[in-house]
Write a structure and sequence with these properties.
- The chain is α+β, with helices and mostly antiparallel strands and about 375 residues long.
- The protein folds into 3 domains: about 35-60 and about 305-369, conserved putative lor/sdh protein from methanococcus maripaludis s2 fold; about 65-75 and about 220-300, Efflux pump adaptor protein, beta barrel domain (Elongation Factor Tu (Ef-tu), domain 3), CATH 2.40.30; about 90-215, no CATH class.
- The protein has helices at about 1-30, 115-145, 150-175; strands spanning about 35, 40, 55, 60, 65-75, 80, 90-95, 100, 105-110, 190-195, 200-205, 210, 220, 225-235, 245-250, 255-265, 275-285, 295-300, 305-310, 315, 320-330, 330-345, 345-350, 360-365.
- Strands 1, 2, 4, 19, 20, 21, 22 and 23 form an 8-stranded antiparallel β-sheet that branches. A 6-stranded antiparallel barrel has the order 5-14-17-16-15-18. Strands 6-13-11-8 form a 4-stranded antiparallel β-sheet, with no helix packed on it.
- Helix 2 (about 115-145) packs antiparallel against helix 3 (about 150-175).
- The longest helix is centred in the middle third of the chain and has 32 residues, at about 115-145.
């Protein structure tokens, strides 16, 4: 205890001297600025003149961008699964994988008792119609010569109407299989043709194979010169996307390659599980880079609008928001919260908080914090 008293006596003059010096500095330090609420008043402009830079906000055109993942899909009207129309045996194939074909191009031939029965029904219906036509003509001749009855004529007319309807049905049944009934031969195989133009992207046709009418498709034809890109857009971002908007597609398979397209359709329903909305976009694919099922990154670009742009260096970060200092008058600056849409290439796009004509501290604002 005694030693501590001696130490305090020795240090006391130094403590008093230090305290006195500090008070003296405080008394002589000029009042260079004042802070009232969010406003800073600078009384000595020379103190920070070399440390800050002022500039007026700029208004530039900007397109809101929404980025999400997408999947490449074929356009349904340009895609066809080829399945057997009935059970039968394939006797000939006309195509190979990757082959370009036109609409109505023969794909394969198949023979089947079912198809033979359809042919037989047509020939029988045609023969019945011809017979009924002859019978009606005979009844008319008899009436003309005064040896027939009106009742027999009406019966012949009714019979012809019935068989003509049966003939029309049999004729239509053959046309379903893209067969010309006028050139058909009883017992001939059915030639299955492509309903669309495109390329053979899948071919499982085996000559001699017996297939059933409920079998899986044995060939796939697709026109992939244009494709759909399906993307899921979050509910909060759907307001920025409209039919006809431009999009850009990036693929990991082709780094740096950009494919353009347009929004084709925005679905009306929201996926309750993901709170997202399906957006279909149509893209040109003449180079064949987009493959069915491929994952892509989709950049949706809203129509351009005027937005305020400021240097990124002007932005300061508070506890709850970003802000800048706006000059109200010479040497008077107000801390102003802003909403930042995005930052790119050293500029920040401001969606809320600033107005045209505002002058801000574009550099050195942190000296006022």
């Amino acid at each position: 205890m005694k030693n501590k008293k001696y130490l305090l006596i020795i240090l006391l003059p130094f403590i008093i001297s230090f305290t006195g010096c500090r008070n003296k500095v405080d008394e002589n330090t000029p009042n260079t600025y004042q802070v009232k609420g969010d406003t800073v008043y600078i009384s000595d402009q020379n103190l920070i003149a070399s440390k800050i830079k002022l500039s007026e906000v700029e208004v530039k055109s900007y397109s809101k961008e929404v980025i999400t993942a997408g999947t490449v899909q074929p356009i349904p009207t340009q895609f066809a699964y080829i399945a057997p129309p009935f059970s039968g045996r394939i006797i000939k194939s006309y195509i190979k994988l990757g082959q370009p074909i036109k609409a109505n191009t023969p794909l394969f031939e198949i023979i089947s008792p079912s198809f033979t029965a359809v042919q037989k029904d047509f020939f029988q219906a045609r023969a019945s119609r011809e017979l009924a036509q002859k019978e009606l003509k005979r009844k008319k001749d008899l009436i003309k010569n005064g040896v027939g009855s009106q009742k027999e004529l009406e019966e012949a007319l009714n019979t012809l109407q019935i068989v003509e309807k049966e003939y029309e049905n049999a004729h239509s049944a053959l046309q379903v299989y893209q067969v010309n009934p006028e050139n058909i031969i009883l017992g001939q195989p059915l030639i299955v043709r492509s309903p669309i133009a495109g390329h053979v992207i899948e071919n499982n046709i085996v000559t001699g194979q017996y297939i059933k009418d409920d079998s899986e498709p044995i060939a796939t034809i697709a026109d992939l010169s244009q494709v759909w890109v399906t993307a899921q857009v979050k509910e909060k971002d759907i307001r920025f996307i409209h039919e006809g908007d431009n999009i850009e597609i990036n693929m990991s398979a082709y780094p740096g390659k950009v494919i353009t397209g347009k929004v084709f359709h925005v679905e009306e329903a929201v996926d309750e599980a993901t709170r997202s909305i399906k957006v279909l976009s149509i893209c040109d694919n003449k180079e064949g880079l987009l493959k069915i099922g491929m994952y892509t990154t989709v950049h949706f670009l809203d129509k351009a609008s005027d937005f305020i742009h400021i240097p990124e260096k002007a932005l300061l970060q508070g506890e709850k928001d970003s802000y800048v200092y706006v000059e109200l008058a010479p040497n008077i600056y107000k801390r102003t919260p802003v909403e930042v849409e995005t930052s790119k290439n050293g500029e920040a796009v401001i969606s809320k908080g600033l107005s045209v004509g505002n002058k801000i501290i574009s550099e050195g604002g942190y000296y006022l914090k």
